Sequence to fold (126 residues):
Amino acid sequence: MPVNKKHDEFYTLDMTTGWEVPVGYPQGIKQKIISGALDEENRGGTRTRLLKFDPGVFTTKPFEHEYWEEVYLVSGDLTVGNDENGDGGETFPPNTYACRPPHAPHGPFKSEKGCILLEIHYFDPV
Fold:
């Protein structure tokens, strides 16, 4: 399957529009798709997105998915492994990175001051 992304040279992203709450995520976490698309039902495609946490927002349970995921913390703080009340976990600063294969459990997540993540998702084989 070919990569489903168009050729884009450098351009300024509009950071004020195009944000939406992904299905199953709490309010206060929003995504902005930058390139491509992911077809989870048919296990295909590749997607690059920004994921933004508002200050104080957290998820309550670990989760996993069928695709590869690369995550780069662009700005803010991200805590991994908090409990259902948002307490505990390990906090990471900007310029940290994770690469997860399909079915790797991860989370829950929270951000005290808010954060922006750059995420790349894809199915194997690419």
